[in-house]
Amino acid sequence: MKKYLFIIGIALMSCQQRNPNTASVAVMPAGETAVFETAGENSQWRGVNRDGVYHETGLLKEWAAGGPELLWYFRGLGDGYSSPAVANGRIYVTGQTNGRLILYVFDLNGELLNRKDVGREESIRYPGPRSTVTVNDGKLYLYNAFGEIFCLDERTLNVVWSKNILTEFNGRNIEWGVNETFLILGDKLIATPGGERNNIVALNKNTGELIWSSRGRGEISTYCSPLFIDGYFAPMIVTSTEQHIIGLNANTGELLWSHPQTNRWNIHPNTPLYGNGMIFSTTGYGGGSVMIRLINNGRAIEQVWTNNVDNQIGGAVKIGNYIYTSGHNNRGFFCIDWNTGEVKWRATEVGNGTTIYADGMLYFYSDRGEVFLIRPNPERFELVSRLPITMGTNQHWAHLVIHNGVLYVRHGDAIMAYKIR
Length: 421
Hints:
Blueprint: E1 53-54, E2 69-75, E3 85-87, E4 90-97, E5 100-107, E6 112-120, E7 134-136, E8 139-143, E9 148-153, E10 159-164, H1 165-168, E11 183-185, E12 188-191, E13 200-204, E14 210-214, E15 227-229, E16 236-241, E17 244-249, E18 255-260, E19 273-275, E20 278-283, E21 288-295, E22 300-307, E23 316-319, E24 322-326, E25 333-337, E26 343-347, E27 353-358, E28 361-366, E29 370-375, E30 382-388, E31 401-403, E32 406-411, E33 414-419
């Protein structure tokens, strides 16, 4: 079973202090639904550009012994590996209880405002939701391990539309249940059923109706949340399927190019990174990392370099001309030259985990159960502070989120909010 242990981790505001020793359990009475005012703020996987970079300022550059101040916490989310989504004064996070996908809604002080049963969810093999809620233009988008998309009204939490894309598009579920945090481009919601003919689809985000379908490479999906790249002859979607990194025309779904990327199990959950006309992709189980360059105005690619750093589910960030990420078979935290693939250093003392960046500092959530504050430095590993995560259940796989000076950590049935400004 250990050979699959990364899958479920996929698959990302100013709080007034309240007593962190008690968790709020205030909810609407049974049969009632809270109606929230929304301000048009959106939230998606791993920050604005899906690159793990959070555009925050004034954050602490060092924490007190034992970590930053705990503002609040909540226990009782059930099983799950999804990250919290923060938008419009609300925090949205999902969990699984008794085989049901439950959406939890908190205010910024940690008060539980609502708990909604959305549909079924994986409850046997690594139980719990994998996909992070996407907040977009007053709607919430959720995905379960069985291929069902749920679009909810953000104000009322009523279901606007839902559909099973595996059933509708002849997709095939994968070993540990599909995972994808949806990419939304204008009115298009991009999803990967993994069918031979309907490999990747664009749905109308407001109705669920099909806009276009792409054959892609005809491969099954592989837990990857896609990336958007603009500035070439056509806007581009980049993602991974079973054995390839692929680029599609976002307007039409036309396959523009593909590049082989495999590992022992053909599992590729990490969203690619883009910068300087190049795309970085890393995968676990010895698959290693590859850098490709876009050529011919985005119509084709060429390989630049490869190395053996094999990130499993933790993502990567690009800071200047360097990549910071972790390994899988080759355990540790790495700094890699963006242009050459040279490993500048490897730190083995923090284990493997997930990585994000904000205001000059790296935040690394180790699978050993600690969050590390690290100063980016291509010359050496600079560990500044650490925060032990003592609450929660099961694996430490959810990606961290930073919003308005607060660090949100999800660990199984617990969510914690720390003051880092």
